[in-house]
Amino acid sequence: DFVKANTSRQVLDASEFQVAQILADKILNRSVLGRPFGDYVQEGIPEATIYYTDPSTDTRCRVRIDLLHPEIRFDLKTTSYIDRRAWVRHALDLDYDLQAYMYSLACSLFYGETTPKPFIFVTAESAAPHSVSAFTAGNSFIEEGSKKYREALVTFAACSSTDHWPDAGSEEIVEIEHWQQRPSSPAWRANLPRT
To answer: Among the four residues 76, 119, 166, 184, which has the most C-beta atoms within 10 Å?
Structure first.
């Protein structure tokens, strides 16, 4: 009855809630730059919204930072990729580099900073063992985000000025490269029980 009455909410059972509590504790106790992440949470502003005007295009923008700390900007992510290399590939596909640049720019403009504060992704593995990592966005990561940001804003400004919003959709045949094909292998047969 409770679930039916609360269709707009995600209802957790006791075991799901216990897993969420364990993960929250792991995140808060994760050492980030030599301190428990929970210390930063106590000192920062969660879900901080900043509005700003982009200096080069005069476009009004908004960001919502998971944790705005006086010394560091944080974003929390759940992930299936705890290995740094795999996570970075995933992060670039999801434009986390763009996000890191945009959030850093917003904070710099808001606070009048000439040098942006570090931007750290705190990532929590979605499945057990729920490993938690802290990945600081390096210069090349931020620079890649800067390129995406500039391209997006220039495109937005051009479309806004002409009131023309092109459709980038297409109709195509999809093929895969030879290296994407799964090789046929009878190896699975070796694991069958012999009769």
So the answer is: 119
Cα Rg, the chain, nearest whole Å: 22
Kindly give the confidence (pLDDT) of every residue in the chain, 195 residues in length, as a single tens digit, with 9 standing for 90 and above. Answer: 888 888 888 888 888 888 889 889 999 999 999 999 999 999 999 999 999 999 888 999 999 999 999 999 999 999 888 889 999 999 999 999 999 999 999 999 999 999 999 999 999 998 888 899 999 999 999 999 999 999 999 999 899 999 999 898 999 999 989 888 887 766 656 667 776
β-pair partners for 46: 67
pTM across the whole model: 0.79
